[in-house]
């Protein structure tokens, strides 16, 4: 890898195909609800996170938007991702477009009229590859329309495999968000994305603190070597792989410690040891439809 991963900081970004940039490190808010979600986002921004990943399906877009306002961090400094919740049925492009619109005032409730600015979403993803080629095509056309209008800056996908990516109409997605950690490395999908210049984003990078995985001897040995905990080593692995990574937590101390991954480097021996843990789809701990149509 030509990039020097030893120079990464919490401010490091990845340049997308569009020319825009995305912070390499962010906060996931899957299953975060109510006050705990609101406070987690504020705590993360206080700890210098500048990227929050939400979704229509999570039902917390409004909490994320309000937390950003309350944090005092300018909206322009916070990268917010959300995801369109697709349907197994084929929907028209216009119907999808209207659903996308519903996210805008939740994600960015304060920008209208402020210094002439307009509300916007930094990144909108299709959450899953449902609907077959026709449904995916209609979903993608709606996202592309919103991007052309400017209120969505970038568009991408989540849980898409190489075949599904290949069959999408233009433009090429800027990012594919998939389950990624040493036990589920999704190598064919990652290779395809990297070949096409599509950024790879790792969700569930902490393997949901799976008891057995967190006691893996190779992982514990690396933790001891660097004086770091399992979460920190796993986040660092994702970063050194070149992925955008979005660990989830609602615990203030954990939110802070998850960001303390820039004062050590995993060497080749460490990376090889973690790479050797791959179990393919069998290593997944979430719904993992990448290899399914």
Automatic annotation (TrEMBL):
Report whether Chloroplast shows up as a keyword of the record.
no
- The positions annotated for binding substrate are 127
| InterPro entries xrefs | AKR, Aldo/ket_reductase_CS, NAD(P)_OxRdtase_dom_sf, NADP_OxRdtase_dom
Q: Which GO terms describe its molecular function?
A: oxidoreductase activity
Which residue positions hold the site described Lowers pKa of active site Tyr? 83
UniProt keywords (A-Z) are: Oxidoreductase
Highest taxon of source: Eukaryota
Please state every residue range assigned to the domain named NADP-dependent oxidoreductase. Answer: 33-278
Enumerate the Pfam families for this protein: Aldo_ket_red
Q: Where is the active site?
A: 58
User: Member of which family?
Assistant: Belongs to the aldo/keto reductase family.
Which protein are we looking at?
A: Putative aldo-keto reductase
């Amino acid at each position: 890898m030509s990039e020097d991963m030893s120079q990464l900081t919490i401010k490091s970004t990845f340049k997308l195909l569009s020319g825009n940039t995305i912070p390499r490190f962010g906060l996931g808010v899957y299953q975060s609800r109510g006050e705990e979600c609101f406070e987690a986002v504020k705590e993360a921004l206080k700890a210098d996170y500048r990227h929050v990943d939400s979704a229509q399906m999570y039902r917390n877009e409004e909490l994320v938007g309000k937390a950003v306002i309350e944090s005092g961090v300018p909206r322009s400094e916070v990268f917010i991702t959300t995801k369109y919740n697709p349907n197994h049925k084929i929907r028209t492009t216009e119907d999808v477009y209207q659903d996308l619109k519903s996210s805008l005032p939740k994600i960015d409730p304060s920008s209208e009229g402020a210094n002439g600015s307009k509300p916007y979403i930094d990144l909108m993803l299709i959450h899953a590859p449902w609907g077959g080629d026709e449904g995916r095509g209609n979903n993608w056309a709606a996202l592309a329309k919103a991007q052309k209008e400017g209120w969505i800056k970038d568009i991408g996908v989540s849980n898409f495999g190489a075949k599904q990516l290949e069959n999408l109409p233009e433009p090429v997605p800027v990012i594919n968000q998939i389950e990624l950690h040493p036990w589920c490395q999704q190598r064919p999908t990652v290779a395809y994305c990297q070949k096409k210049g599509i950024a790879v984003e790792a969700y569930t990078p902490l393997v949901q603190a799976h008891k057995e995985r967190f006691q893996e001897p190779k992982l514990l040995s690396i933790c001891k070597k660097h004086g770091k905990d399992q979460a920190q080593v796993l986040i660092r692995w994702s970063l050194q792989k070149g992925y955008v990574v979005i660990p989830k937590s609602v615990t203030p101390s954990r939110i802070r410690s998850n960001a303390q991954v820039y004062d050590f480097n995993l060497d080749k021996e460490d990376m090889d040891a973690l790479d050797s843990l791959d179990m393919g789809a069998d290593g997944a701990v979430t719904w993992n439809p990448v290899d399914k149509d």
